[in-house]
Amino acid sequence: MSDKLLKLFLVVYVIAGIVLGISLFSHGYMFMGGISLFISLGSAWIFFSKKTQALRFMYPGLLTFVLFMILPILFTVYIAFTNLGTGHFLSKDQVKSTLLSEKVIPENAVNMEYSIYPRIDAPDILVAHTLEGDYKTYLEEGATTLALQPFRDRLPDVAPLTLSEIYAIKDTLSQFDFVTPEGKKLKYHRTDLLIESSKRYESLPDGTLKDTVTGTLWIEDNETGYYKSGAETLAPGYYVNTGFKNFKSLISDSRLNSNFFKVLQWTLMWSFFSVLLTFSFGTFLAIVINDKGLELKAIYRVLFIIPYSIPFFISVLIFKGMMNKDFGAINQVLVELGFDKVPWLETPFWAKISCLVVNLWLGFPYMFLVVTGILQSIPASLYEAAKLDGAGKIATFKNITLPLIMSAVGPLLVGSFAFNLNNFVGIYLLTGGGPPIPGATTAVGETDILISYTYRLAFEGGQGQDFGLASSIALFIFLIVSILTLINFKLSGMGGESSKEAA
Amino acid sequence: MSELVAKGTSTKNTGFNFQKAQMTKLAKHLFLWTLLMIVLFPIIYIISISFNASGSIGSKLIPDSLTLNHWKYILGIPYLDAAGKEVVSPFPIMLWLWNSIKISSVSAVLMLLLSTTSAYALSRFRFRGRQSSLLVLMIIQMFPNIMAMVAFYFMLDFIGGFVPWLGTDSHGGLILVYLGGTPFNIWLIKGYFDTIPKSIEESAIMDGCTKFQAFWKIVLPLSTPILAVVGLLTFINTFSDFILPSILLKSGDKLTFAVGIQIFISDAFSGRWGPFAAACFLGAFPISAIFFTIHKYIISGLAMGGTKG
Which residues of B touch A386 (CB under 8 A)? Predict the structure, then answer.
């Protein structure tokens, strides 16, 4: 019963996918249509072939993973090699058809008022009025060019269409070219006026656009994504593949590279010090509390992990207020203790310190928990043996506790490094990336890390959006995370199955 | 073990030294409580502010007079201000919270549906490409999806042209993006499935049960603990996400709590500090409660190299 329902659902699903694919094709989206067809035919094969039982179970999780993880990553790689962004939002075809639909009204354009007289079972008559006399034409459905002929008869004996009736058919009227005996082309302009107008640009066989008024030739430049005439460009531009331009400009463009390297350097420093601080403090605390004779251990362990249980965005926003230089709670306390106010979020140095302090608060409980777990798993016999050998407490710590902790936390520290590398909330909600780097040509600040820089380039607007550049920075993150993953595999000796820690 | 204790007990255990050890222990407690005061200060402070009648960013830790107005403000209950004028919050804070809860719950449920079957295949079937699938999942889950934020924006923009409720500025689209994050959960669940003996299913299959029925009716009910953990973990992570909803959602009534509250406080940092404090508590408390019910699992999950939200 439930199997039949499932089958029915699957059939509907596959058919829907095929229909979607075909409709995408017919809209001209070859790539997306291809993916859609591939997925639905693939699903059909997976679910109705006898050999694919494992794949059938893998399918649901795998599908969303491929569509919303793998595909976006590939797409990001693609965008990184384009100039997609402000001024280059559309494809070349879209830009071309926009430009070709532009109209121009010449000076001293001929214009004529008109009225339309409806007829039954025959094309309506349009009568255009000028000072020299009237013209008429029949609104033949499907025609594109209608010749205006001199008209000296009586006007037809019916009431002409009202303006609102004409407005209702304006789309049809717009399709006609009304040609006068002198050869002037008039177009629908208002519900009561035809006006001489022509296309602003015409497309030449080689793809060049010719300005019909000035005669300027606009040549497509597929390197910059513009129609160009000399140094002049025609707006809007279109997006094009720019090769390694984004990467080159990050590394060697003097306006960008110093800021980029600054961000890169701070990203690595921030991750490194975040890990160092949280790990040191967490370990210290774990060791202090793990004392056998200490009472209230369980209470300490709960209270100290409270910071970790709160969503980071909430804690960071609270700290942002508390670190306000003039009114914030932290400076209030400092002043009462007799210290000077600290410009927490305002100078480059203190803004960085603030980020690290807040991140220490957010992250130490995790290290505390992990190290506590390791300490509890060290067998007591090890310590007894050390005691028998006459080792003091300090020697025991140095020779047993510390090495055991370090051997177990390696992969975790790398994981924590990778997490902080992309700890957007810890930076952006606290400082917004600021304070701004003076003289920067893009939105970038002293505490920006790669991921917040990516975000600001793509979505903060202000100085325009540059999706291409943003994506190329994302690829740098990708590279760093890849290296970290590799290190982690080496450290944990994985490669095959290692699911013992799960659950 | 600790250096502090080491000083106190490493000499011979005379009566005097015993007293000294007690003193050391007391000092240790004192130290830990001082540390706790510092660590928990922001939380105590924010709770105090949420009831503080002045409730501005410069308010003292101990309020001069108490009020419920900040709470009324965020709950959308009208109240009279100092001048006797009726105040109703123009910000749909409760709606944002509801949006977050809705998006997070739906994501969690769908995530479970998607990842359990995959985990089952990886745990029970032996097929070509199994080892490499495991490896790929392991590697990919290291990469946070926010790296592809630009791509997500354009993908949803494109999808929205055909199916508006899955496009940008829609909750459906946002959920769709979260569903790409199956690998980590597949790993967690697979690990649990591995601990369930196969013999139970095998005898069921002998009795004429299909593989799917064995999975649905036997393995899943036995895995309730891990399903709860993965579901709640997904809920927490989704609730805590900031970057994706801030990119993908635009209209004020569709924002999630994270994005809404950030906009709410960034517009006027000082003036809204009181209601903000109340909202923080309201948003943090349930998540914190969920965290404490499953924190042992979160740590073991983290031990696999995942990330916390």
Answer: none
**Is-contact A37 A18, C-beta < 8 A?**
yes
Residue A474 to residue B182, Cβ atoms within 8 A: no
Structure tokens at B43: 């939380």
Q: What is the torsion angle, in degrees rounded to the nearest 10, for the CA atoms of residue A318, residue A321, residue A324 and residue A329?
A: -70
A201 backbone dihedrals φ, ψ, rounded to 5°: -125, 145
**Is the distance from CB of A192 to CB of A161 less than 8 angstroms?**
no
CA distances from A279 to A291, A409, A488 (A): 19, 10, 17
Q: Which of residues 62-91 of A touch B (CB under 8 A)?
A: 62-65, 67-73, 75-76, 79
- Asked whether the beta carbons of residue A317 and residue B262 sit closer than 8 angstroms, the reply is yes
Cβ-based neighbours of B298, under 8 Å, separated by 6 or more: B229, B233, B291, B308
Q: What angle do CA A377, A382, A387 make, to 5 degrees?
A: 135
Judge contact between A105 and A196, C-beta under 8 A.
yes
Q: Which of A75, A471, A499 sits opposite B194 (nearest CB)?
A: A499
How many whole angstroms separate alpha carbon B242 and alpha carbon A212?
51
**CB-CB contact of A444 with A469 (8 Å):** no
- CB atoms B158 and A32 under 8 Å: yes
B-chain CB neighbours of A315 within 8 Å are 42
The C-alpha of A450 sits at a distance from chain B's nearest C-alpha, in angstroms, of 10
Kindly list the distances between the CA atom of residue A230 and the CA atoms of A99, A226, A233, A246, in Å, as whole numbers in the listed order. Answer: 18, 11, 8, 24
Phi, psi of A450 (to 5 degrees): -50, -45
A236 preceded by a cis bond (ω within 30 of 0):
yes
Q: Across the interface, do B288 and A310 touch by the CB < 8 Å criterion? A: yes
* A390 contacts A329 by C-beta, under 8 angstroms: no
Q: Does A370 touch chain B (CB under 8 A)?
A: yes
Closest CA to B168 of B183, B147, B180, B152: B152
The model's pTM is: 0.83
> Digits of tens for pLDDT over chain A (503 positions)?
566 777 888 888 888 888 888 888 887 788 888 888 888 888 888 877 777 778 888 888 888 888 899 899 999 999 999 999 888 888 888 888 888 878 888 777 788 888 888 888 788 888 888 887 888 888 888 788 888 888 877 777 788 888 888 888 888 888 888 888 888 888 888 888 888 877 888 888 888 888 877 888 888 888 888 888 878 888 788 888 888 989 998 888 888 888 999 999 999 999 999 999 999 999 999 999 988 788 888 899 999 999 999 999 999 999 999 998 888 889 989 998 999 999 999 999 999 999 999 999 999 999 998 898 888 888 888 888 888 888 888 888 888 888 888 888 888 899 899 999 999 999 999 999 889 888 888 888 999 999 999 999 999 867 788 999 999 999 999 999 999 988 888 887 654 433 333 32
For A234, list phi and psi in degrees, rounded to 5. Answer: -105, 125
Rounded distance, CA B292 to CA B100, Å?
A: 20
Q: What string of DSSP letters covers A126-145? A: EEEE-SS-EEEEE--TT-SE
Bridge partners (DSSP) of residue B86 are B80
CB atoms inside a 10 Å sphere around CB A204: 12
Tokens found for residue B122: 């990886």
Q: Give the chain A residue nearest B111 (alpha carbons).
A: A61
